[in-house]
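Translate structure to sequence.
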């Protein structure tokens, strides 16, 4: 039985679907992942089928319009920024459609909502697989509102409905344009799929730990917080001798990296700020340049090591703390590693993860990127390295490691497909 999985976004967005794909493969399914062509070797390296979506997703960070949209830092800006992403989304729809041909079921990211309508057209089951909680609940606000004012349970529910409708407004026009271009009309029953799947009691699985956001009691029966979907990249990765030597030459360092959302225009300034903060706090550091968010300076202090990137599953447990932008995947990796986190939110849901990490007592109070200074970062590092935070982070890491989220999600999918 062939399951096509529709992923959307960066490497961090794609990686959980590889983990889920491997669990489904172990359960006896054939799995095909559709994702940016940038990740072909990454996906195929795990023995999964790959369908390339045209376009290099890393170029999103250099497109001025898309870059501005991805730097939205409050709920209103985030809602408005989604409109800018529509044109980029249109180019993906045909790839998503073609990737599903011959499939027996479709598993789709909320950013690939066309999966719901493709499954409907092919008369096969579809499953929403989301990397963050998005099913409406009264327990907490939607992630883009999570770091805003709290106005009670009814308000919480309304924020989820607004976020869900916004996601649909972003997706609906590209889907509509593609379907009319291919078939001359919109799909039958063309309505908000996120609401429709609840009305049909279809399966939704969420890659999130119940120790981070407990599964709400007001969720429908077929919505499951399964635990994070982790795939360990280090199976074919070897650290350089220089990195090994640095790690062994002193106390565990602090990791600092801003992934795909670092600003190349101020990479040197950011690097100098981070080094200053590490020196003030008396810490060694491993700095990851990512997509040019930080720079390789001509002169690097002996207490600093700069690399392009390294698998988080290998690197993070060897750190004393991790400083990052607060992407969902990087946050999950930091929590799993059992070390304290310091989040520097740049945009979108990163503010939610920053607040949640602080609420859980496993990291320092987040510092928005616009307010980041060496003094503030130094203070946050020292706060994160207190015994109470270190113990709480270690305990949470052990709980997350016990969840086996991808296997739980695969079992839920298998059970659901058997009933269809």
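Result:
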């Amino acid at each position: 039985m062939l399951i096509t999985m529709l992923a959307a976004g960066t490497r961090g967005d794609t990686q959980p679907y590889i983990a889920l794909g491997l669990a489904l493969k172990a359960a006896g399914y054939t799995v095909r992942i559709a994702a940016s062509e940038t990740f072909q070797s990454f996906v195929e390296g795990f023995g999964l089928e790959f369908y390339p979506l045209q376009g290099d997703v890393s170029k999103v960070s250099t497109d001025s319009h898309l870059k501005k949209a991805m730097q939205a830092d409050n709920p209103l800006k985030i809602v408005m920024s989604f409109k800018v992403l529509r044109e980029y989304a249109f180019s993906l729809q045909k790839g998503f459609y073609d990737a599903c041909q011959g499939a027996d079921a479709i598993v789709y990211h909320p950013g690939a909502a066309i999966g719901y309508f493709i499954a409907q057209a092919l008369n096969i089951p579809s499953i929403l697989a989301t990397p963050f909680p998005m099913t409406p609940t009264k327990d907490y606000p939607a992630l883009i509102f999570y770091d805003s004012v709290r106005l009670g349970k009814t308000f919480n529910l309304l924020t989820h409905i607004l976020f869900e409708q916004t996601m649909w407004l972003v997706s609906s026009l590209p889907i509509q344009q593609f379907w009319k271009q291919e078939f001359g009309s919109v799909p039958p029953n063309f309505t908000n799929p996120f609401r429709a799947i609840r009305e049909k009691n279809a399966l939704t699985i969420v890659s999130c730990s119940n120790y981070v956001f407990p599964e709400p009691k007001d969720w429908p029966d077929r919505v499951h917080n399964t635990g994070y979907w982790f795939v360990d990249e280090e199976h074919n990765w070897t650290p350089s001798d220089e990195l090994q030597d640095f790690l062994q030459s002193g106390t565990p360092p602090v990791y600092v990296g801003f992934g795909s959302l670092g600003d190349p225009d101020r990479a040197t300034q950011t690097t100098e700020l981070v080094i200053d903060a590490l020196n003030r706090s008396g810490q060694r550091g491993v700095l990851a340049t990512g997509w040019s968010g930080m720079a390789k300076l001509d002169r690097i202090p002996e207490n600093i090591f700069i690399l392009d990137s390294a698998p988080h599953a290998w690197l993070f447990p060897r750190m004393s703390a991790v400083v990052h932008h607060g992407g969902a995947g990087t946050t999950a990796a930091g929590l799993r590693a059992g070390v304290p986190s310091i989040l520097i939110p740049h945009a979108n849901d990163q503010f939610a993860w920053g607040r949640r990490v602080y609420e859980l007592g496993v990291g320092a109070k987040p510092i928005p990127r616009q307010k980041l200074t060496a003094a503030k970062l130094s203070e946050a590092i020292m706060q994160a390295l207190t015994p109470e935070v270190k113990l709480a982070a270690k305990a949470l890491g052990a709980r997350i490691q016990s969840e086996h989220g991808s296997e739980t999600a695969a079992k839920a999918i298998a059970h659901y497909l058997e009933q269809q």
